[in-house]
Fold these 4 entries.
Entry 1:
Amino acid sequence: MRYPLHAPGSDGWAAAIRTARAELAADGCTVLRGFIRPEQVDTLRTEGVALAPHAYYTVENVNAYNIPLDTDLPDGHPGRIVLRRGNAFVARDLIPRDALIHRLYTDPRFQRFVADCFGLAELHEYTDPLAGLCLNVVAPGMSHPWHFDTNEFTVSMLTQEPQSGGVFEYCPNIRSRDAEHLEDVRAVLDGDGAQLIRSLELRPGDLQLFQGRFSLHRVAPVGGTVQRHSAIFAYSDSTGVIGTAERTRQLFGRVLPDHLAADAVRGDTLLD
């Protein structure tokens, strides 16, 4: 067994952790191929297909930082570049607790394994009642444009692959906790930063660990007639992380009292 979640500290566990840490250190990303057993991949897909109609569908103008488009930014700032977002999200409160992705997300053994991969003493479920766990749906002709994640440690799993397109593209560590590196970000958004971009082919059941807070990334336009579905497991190394009301409305079309009552908790001063 390549990923023995039932045996923390075993030789197989340690080997998987070593590989994941090495790839994260080198690239800000690692993919654990075939994390879901083959006999469960169809369940993963079927549950995602059943959930997809509950996604909040909207096409809107955004920027890579998911901050208001009228934010006062200097000329030339990449946050002034308008992108078209057409992906949709099924929020956590619409995902049944017995769904495979929900059971995996809340499993302490899975959380311990992911924490060890990231080299963290502990890992916390995202407090946000909508964004903690969600299904990302990208329909044919749509894309999830360039953006940064709110949480530092992004964990995701493709549950249905499209017929064509929908490739995951990213710019490893294009910014840091202390520096935005605006020129590099702008180069990518302007189409002049091809040398900064890497592409990643994913298959259903692959587990992707990614430092999305610091790596600009997108899902390229989907082709064919089949939607691209991926589960997003949102964790943080700190407690109490809740998305801003602005970003929550963008993604889910609604906000809850938790979003209105508190500012988002962040471990840095980067744009969101």
Note: The chain is about 25% helix and 20% strand.
Entry 2:
Amino acid sequence: MTQTRRILVIGGGIGGLTAAIAMRRQGIEVDLIERDPDWSVYGVGIIQQSNVIRAMAELDLLDEYLDAGCGFDQVEIYIPTGQQVATVPSPQLVPGKPANVGIGRRALQKVLADRAIGSGTHIRLGITASDLLDDGSGVDVCFSDGGTARYDAVIAADGIYSVHRKQLFPDAPAPEFTGQSVWRYNFPRPANLTGLCVFNGPIGIGLVPMSRELMYMFVTTPEPDNRWYDKADLAAAMRDKLAGVPAPQIRALAAAITDNDGVVYRPLETFFLEGPWHKGRIALLGDAVHSTTPHLGQGAGMAIEDAIVLAEELAAHDELAAAFEAYRARRFDRCRYIVQSSRAICDGQIGRGPPVDNHAATVGMFEVVAKAI
């Protein structure tokens, strides 16, 4: 790499922060802007599999990461009545380390933000890029605070509703609502919860350890009208969604859902950009190009892998276009598999497609993500 020395990252989420960390390790000067002045993250958890543990080891972040979360080595599959029918061991890609991690999103954000700042990334909050002018030899950026700067390249990691994707590719399709939504809620973690527990059925349910003290529940429900719920009604609405679930362990937990502020509700949308992932000196990363439903727990994992691959390709190529093309080539099939396979589970749960066996889908996902990126 001889021509790319200063890069702007737009978006301070998981993908943007990991990109900053990975590029700093390659000696690239990085500025990062995040539009949220409070840099807020909602307080439930996230599942990350062995490919993310491997990625954290590559970034020399593994110890901090594992200390912030809860490692586990298997996925337990239950039928709707609450009986366990299978245990799926997960492949360990880092010897002696867990195969999976449950971690609070705020804890993960802190691990990544601390390393990004410590590595020399210049981070500014409450700022957006109001204009990007790519003249072929660099990108002039106008910021919302009136400032300007020039960069060799810009990486937009600004999410499923990416403003900069719309600017680069105005004819790209919009994100698609799936007909399903996800609910999340934190609970005290019982001692016997030692891995991810997945309950099959038309309402998908999972219990995920994320620290010694906490676990979270996720619930996927049909929402054909893309309904939104008033915040004051969220706890009661989540309890209602679980009222008909036969599993006694889930009914017991449902009764404890009482805090409206503790319920995180989100309609599920998907997006995959089939065409180029860059235009000139501006490239897209993470949910801006491949936003998935959470059924395989790989959304953040794909963004983290994107960041590592992008930094590697920037280091390996003198020409920026070649680096961006190589980045997309390495990521395209893997990310499309995750988006499509996760959507298939979603469609099966709401009757828009054949039911998908979670055991088989989990095994297949582990086989794919175990491969080198």
Note: The chain has two domains: 6-70+105-175+270-369, 176-268.
Entry 3:
Amino acid sequence: MSIIEVSHLTKDYGHGRGVFDVSINVNKGECVGFLGPNGAGKTTTIRHLMGFSKPQKGTTAILGKDSWVHAARLQNTVGYLPGEIALPAGITGTGFLKMMKQMRRIQDDSYCQMLLDKFELDPNIGTKQMSLGVKRKLAVVTAFMHDPDILILDEPTSGLDPIMQQIFIDYIVSEKKRGKTIFLSSHIFHEVDATCDRIAIIKDGKIVSHFIADELKERSDKVYRVTFKDEESYRKFTELPYQFASKNPGKLRARVHVHDEKVNQLISDIVKLNIEDFHEFPFTLEDYFMQFYREDRIFEGVK
């Protein structure tokens, strides 16, 4: 059963901005990743899913209920972590948590305290004095304090340091084992790769790929990095009909995707050239993603 469902969602803001005929679902106990850079349409999709905006076309639903029609009820049910954190001024983190507990009618404080300990958060400071990382941790605790069965997370580790990012990833993996249903948007490959069962890649408001995470890991593709000693060798190689993951003329280096059965042809081609270094890499989520985005700007997580 689909707990979360986006069906043919379209919201056109003009000038190519928005989302266009987006469809994606999350089944019970599953974690689905929504991967793309800022501006690709991830947040727009999630805002519609949370009932903050009405679709121009298509529908969004949680637990079979229309997100727009039943927004208030669903928002109380879901653990939602927004990409941008806006906290009220003139209040401490402790005061904010107390207010949220009252709104959600939380009687047992033990789960909230566990989260405070896990994410090493001392909430006894004013929200105005909080760093971005502390605000993010407060938002994490607030989103999960009522131990919801459904988690909708928009760029959840943005602003967290690497150690806290890993703590968050471990927490999501443990929540998935508890049977939680999770929809996670991100532009960080490691985060998506470590947590998700299925992954959808979004580009310019459209889903360009949707696949099972384990199937990608089992592919027989390899990525090879070849570095050359001179510009002529580099030029001759990059003019060959290979699928290039990247080209770096400054370092006379290129990466190519090669299927196992064509490795001998690659070796045959490069031995004719003046090679400095040859290195094999396993095929990764980043490599697959860059097939769709290699022409575009580089963003965090892309090497």
Note: Residues 245 and 294 are 7 Å apart (CA to CA).
Entry 4:
Amino acid sequence: MATDIEEPTLTVDELAARAGVTVRTVRFYGTKGLLPPPVIGPRRVGHYSQEHLSRLALIEELQHQGMTLAAIERYVQQLPEGLSAHDLAIHRAVVASWAPDSAEDMNRAELERRAGRPLSEGDVDRLVAMSVVRVARADRAYRADGGVKEAGVPDSYRVDLGLLRLGVQLLDVPIAHETILAARTVLLEHTRAAAHELSLLFRDEVSERTSVAAVKDLSADMQPLVVQALLTTFQRSLKEELREWLTEES
């Protein structure tokens, strides 16, 4: 696995703000060995990289799964050495896929706090296109304080917490809004078709006398394996497509 080439540029305060945790939490995780030590620069200031941010996101997801700190320590210790931020993001995606859908309603200020950065209207539109955010539009003529509410101003945002961090990272990728919508359609169509075909295969392994509980147990056992397999095969297929594309261009 490739290591990050991005230079550590985040201070501990900036890292904590982008991760949505406190500086004390960052330092605590460091003492527990959950985070690599920062690179010490001039004036003895520690600097952190995207890898640290990705590790914090992974730890947060493991906590959402109900894992204790001791269990998280064991999980992190078992990770291969030299994982890049991209590799850690894949690990987090696999962990998040085991969890039920999690979404919260929040206002714009809270959304930006969770995102770790200010969000323009264009940013919000892109997050909506990626199904990270759903906007609840105002349907009242006046605010609670009696002032006129501007037409179309959102009252709140329904945010998929499992996708928010990934969606925010994709905001800096130079991809057109229309392309994101088209890519989402392609992924939904093909993943739904794959899920349907796999469910038919699994049904053949379950007899009519199998209890509902047994079926749920089978699903729980197979889901992480299937997700990991999909991620691996997709990565390999994408690399092959890019290789062929670059060959044609050259």
Note: The beta strands are 39-40, 46-47, 103-106, 133-137, 154-160.
